[in-house]
Amino acid sequence: MPEVKKEKWILERSHDLLPVKHFHVVFTLPSQLRGICLQNQKLMYNLLFEAAWQTIEAFSTDPKQKPQARMGMISVLRTWTQTLIYHPHIHCFVPAGGITSEGKWKAKKSDGNGPQRTTANMIMQYRMPFTADFPATE
Q: pTM of the predicted model, to two decimals?
């Protein structure tokens, strides 16, 4: 029965998406911060959403990435795995393009460098110094 609910939800969300290619990007809270997150859920979830949005926005305006257009995203917070392990993460559906400063749609050229790869590089730049002092937990 959960599969039926999942498929229904996906179908309902498809009506919210633009009729363009989309990227699926996942932002995961480092395991070292899960205990803090569990005790401060509202704050940490808001920070996770904010970090995800700032990353997508930075990607969309970066001249090297070529969209140079304001992208959007639909995001869904997931907090537990299917095996009931606390694992806060956000699934984002990001259109492959955005709105230019002139108000026109600009598609992202398919060069293999969608937000997924660039986001991973950006996260590694910021994540490593921040989590280096926390012991890993699983």
A: 0.69
